[in-house]
Each structure stands twice: as structure tokens, then as C-alpha cells.
Amino acid sequence: MSLSAIIVMLASIAALWGVASLTLVHSMRQEERKLELIEAQGNFESFSPAAQRDLESWIERHPKGEPAQEVRELLDLQHKTLRDNPRHFYAWPGQNSAPEH
Predict the structure, then answer these.
(1) pLDDT of residue 98
(2) Which residue, 3, 13, 44, 97, could crosslink 37 as a Cys pair with Cβ 3.0–4.6 Å?
């Protein structure tokens, strides 16, 4: 095997490990924030703003049936959580400050 092939392989391995390590650190910090919210206030919102919009849009298109009722219950829980908890995991439109990191 040529020297350039070995260098490319080693660089690829280093890049893979670097990206994987950064991703792991980011994920662990996110989970730590979630745990802090659970410990401080008992829960946090289940859905991101985009997911909530998607569910609301889905309900508009499929207003009847058992799945629609389940989605309504999930959205009701989401709205209650947003209303009852002062701190949120996701950044919401109209929220004064960005989420804590």
C-alpha cells in the first residue's frame, strides 16, 4: 500500500472519530439539559415547534378517527406543558431568550 493511501486512511479515521466525538458531546449536553428540566420542573415540552406545527397541520387534514383523538391529546399535553413550565427545552417563537446550553 502506498504512503498516500495510508495517509488518506488515517485522515479519514481521524475525521470520523472527530465528528463522532463532537456529535456525542452535543447529544450528551442536550440530554443533560433535559434532565435538568425534569429535575427542576418535572417535565418539558415533548415536541419542537416544527413538530407541533406538523401535528396541528395533520389534525386539520385528518380531523376524525382514533389517531386524530390521540394527536389532539398529545397536543393538549404539549400546550399544558408549555403553559405550566417557565423553562423550555426548545426555542419557541416569541420567547424572550434562547434556550440555555
Answers:
(1) 46
(2) 44
